[in-house]
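Ticket #4471: structure export looks truncated?
Reporter: QA, pipeline team
Priority: medium

Steps to reproduce: submit the single chain below to the structure queue and open the exported record.
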Amino acid sequence: MIANWAAYRENKDHVEVAAQHLENCLDHSSATTPEFREELIIEAATFQALRRNRIDLARAWLSEDKSGKKSLNRYLAEATILHQEGQAEQVLAKIAEALDYIATIPDGARLESAFKKWKVEIEENREDKNAAKAEMS
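Actual output as written to the record:
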């Protein structure tokens, strides 16, 4: 299990190899703690959305996480799915939730910058699209 997790993390640029290692982790997740199993499920959702553009499978994996716990990875997975669906406003709302959550955890400032950067990129993209629409009118 741990070897497959390490191999998955090392092979993220090789989609099929990474997918096989992640699948092996999920197959053996009953041997781990419930917390790590939840993280694997959320990782599977993010992987499907980001690497395979399979939003249907990403949502299916995310629905398998029954913990109800707030986690940065959960916010990331939800925002990634929404982003892949082109739902900029909902992504911004999810990022705002993530930033609120980050403010409550130790070492949150280090994590905050990545979400803020993503927020700025989405807002700039939205402004560019609005300006292009205005020019066409």
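Status: closed, not a bug. The export was complete when the record was re-opened. Leaving a note from the reviewer for reference: Residues 108-136 form the longest helix (29 residues).
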